[in-house]
Amino acid sequence: MGPTTIGVTHPVGTVQERFVDTAHYTAAYGGSGGAPWRVLDTTIWYPADGGGPYPLVVFAHGYGVTPSYYNQLISRIAAAGYVVAAPTYPLLSGQPAGPTDTVGWGDLFPDTWFVTNEVLALSASGDPSIGGLIDPNRIAVAGHSDGAVLAFGDGFVPFQLDARVRAVVSFSADQGLYGGYQPNGRPVLYVLSDQDPYNPWGDAIAWARNVLQEPKTVVTLVNASHEGPYVNVGDPHFDLVARLTIGFLDATTKSHPEALANAVQVAVTRPDLAWVG
């Protein structure tokens, strides 16, 4: 597909949707008895000045948080001309019980597919907020920590992947721990922190360099924590993460490879913040 417009900063709107998947159940955990359905409250960030259609990015949150935790980063992505849909995953988020990343873990991948379906249907239906805003042929998935594992599975793991996904963004996760990776030509942006207490950098970067296949963009954030670069605008890495993410998405879903090259060059000139490769 041909290139679409980049370099425009859009005002951003948000809308809350409640999607209910009656084909899958919510497991009992802690004080919750479970349910014969799955409630997926989803926040959607979108360019509020019309135009489009825009690529869709499905964003998966990490352990014990909800999508609002990533509001600053997601808003930056949406302002660059993307519709970003972020579900609140049952139990992983701590709602209606938890958090846990063991009970119900396998259900989180169908959750991601289901939310993708529902958001695309909203766009196609003429919804007053996002009607007509999404190009269904330009879909990426992104995530942080446990959410990065979900995003990676959605792109690369048999029986978890979504064939509609064109690109994958992984923040702060050692994907080598989870197995099942099968290269399939999808591009991936793989961002690690060298001071991540949950994903030792040496193991994670070795896997990224030796196992993860092209096309890949691998970036290590220097003196960076597990969460700060993705949620805190005051973190010195935050702006670089936003630039890399938007550059990668512009390259892979809007057909502007120069956007990623430019963002990587910014990272290369800041060895105090990042190492590339």
Could you write a compact summary of the structure shown?
By secondary structure, this protein is α/β, with parallel strands linked by helices.
Could you explain the architecture of this structure?
The protein is of the alpha/beta class and 277 residues long. It is built from seven helices and nine strands, in the order E-E-E-H-E-H-E-H-E-E-H-E-H-H-H-E. It has helices spanning 71-79, 108-125, 146-156, 201-210, 228-231, 238-253, 257-268, and strands at residues 12-21, 38-47, 54-60, 83-87, 134-144, 165-171, 188-193, 216-221, 274-276. It has a nine-stranded mixed beta sheet with strand order 1-2-4-3-5-6-7-8-9, with helices on both faces. Strand 7, helix 4 (201-210) and strand 8 (216-221) form a beta-alpha-beta unit. The longest helix is centred in the middle third of the chain and has 18 residues, at 108-125. The mean pLDDT is 97.
Number of helices: 7
Q: Give the structural class.
A: alpha/beta
The description of the largest β-sheet is:
9 strands, mixed
- Would you tell me the overall average pLDDT? 97
Strand arrangement, largest sheet? 1-2-4-3-5-6-7-8-9
**Unreliably modeled segments:** none
Outline type: globular
Taking the alpha carbons of the first and last residues, their distance comes to 28 Å
Instruction: Count all strands and give the number.
Output: 9
Layout of SSEs?
Blueprint: E1 12-21, E2 38-47, E3 54-60, H1 71-79, E4 83-87, H2 108-125, E5 134-144, H3 146-156, E6 165-171, E7 188-193, H4 201-210, E8 216-221, H5 228-231, H6 238-253, H7 257-268, E9 274-276
Parallel strand pairs: 3-4, 3-5, 5-6, 6-7, 7-8
Antiparallel strand pairs: 1-2, 2-4, 8-9
